[in-house]
Prior knowledge:
There is one protein chain. By secondary structure, the chain is mostly helical. It folds into 3 domains: 18-140, MgtE N-terminal fold (Alpha Horseshoe); 158-276, CBS-domain; 288-461, SLC41 divalent cation transporters, integral membrane domain (Tetracycline Repressor, domain 2, Orthogonal Bundle), CATH 1.10.357.20. The chain contains 22 helices and 6 strands. It has a 3-stranded mixed beta sheet. Helix 11 links the parallel strand 1 (158-160) and strand 2 (184-188). Helix 3 (49-58) runs parallel beside helix 6 and helix 15 (258-276) packs parallel to helix 21.
Amino acid sequence: MCMATETQGYEQPQVISRDRAGEIAQEVQDLIGRGQENHAWELVRHLHPADVGTILAGLPRTSRQALVTVIPPATFTWILRQMNPVDAARLSARIGSNALSFVLEQVNPWEAMETLLRLPTRQARQVAENLEEPLPSAEVLEYPVDTAGGLMVIQFPVVDVHAQVRSALDSLRALEELRYRFSHVFVTGEDGVLAGQLNVVDLALAREDTQVADIMSAVQASVAVDTPSEECARLRRHYNLPQLPVVQDGKLIGVIPAELLLGAVVENDTRQMLQVASVAGESADGPVFGSIRTRLPWLTVNLGTTFLAAAMIALFESTLAEMVVLAAFLPVVAGQGGIGGTQTLTLIVRAMALGQLVGINAWRLLTREALLGLLHGIWLGVLVAAIAIIWQKNIGLALVLGTAMLGNMIIAGTVGAGVPLFLRRVGVDPAVASAIVVTTFTDVFGFLLYLGIASAMISLIV
């Protein structure tokens, strides 16, 4: 990747598997451990930028810093710009804002600004604050992190509605390497008001003296600078948009390119998934104290809910004393209910995130999940009853287990669908609190059903 300009003399990058990337990372670490940083760089310099970034991010801190010192600053910033935004953000977080600021001070200001725009706004601001000289158009970094303004770029192809095709082509050429990020040239009217867009394929096929207005098409969707990133992600997914123009008072002020839109989609989907598990904002190789801060509050809340389940068991202490074997099957009933509820919960929360529940009646959804719970409960109830008969040779115990399992699976399906629907109705993010509520319901009612039925039928069991 050594180059006079960023890509001059650059060879076709090698694409490798994850396993091979892991092997190279170990080789790099061994070379750096022997003080051979330059040889380590030679080992990775012909790889694809995405693989170089992955290897860098995965190295121990001292090894990573040693390797970064031998990578030319222009090459390092070019690698960041070629990576997808999610991986670029991970690598920049590993490098640290001070080290990244030092690198950016040694490259062209516009290249430095373009590199910062590939990073989450919060990280970009931290790096920009450490720079001795302000960057051009740095005001774009002032937009909130989770908005369209925080995602957009301010260098994009644009042409006047009264111009000809040759002017549109010139606007693309002026962007140099950045032109590959755009599938359309945007068309503006008076005072920069967004008027339409031109597909680059149409531009390539049109005569240069053709009027832009004759071949432009309408813009499918645009967003304001304060539009949440979640909505930008939804628009990209729902309308299959390659890029999204950002307007302010009708005037075009920025564009969210395809890779940043994809990054918003990935970030939104990842956040939803992690919120269900109550580990939002955490990464597998992040700082330990950050993980403690994320997980411990929810673990503490969950500890409190487990005492509700314990209280249910305590209510039936006399029943358990009469028939100790009942205790052996407590986790069976509660565990199956928890798994069934979590399955339904995950499906519903994901459907909400994707907008798949539009027009679907809540009662219809609850009825469907209750029916599934009934069908699952019948099968699992028969199965666990058969196991109880074979193991304990107790038909009464089998009847109690089968009935409790059936009831808890119906509760699991209904609660798994009902809780996220209710939380959304009252304005609480279903992904944040649903999991604990669902598991509490299935544990408490599972124990209540199982031990309650056992108490009522104790004469058949003993």
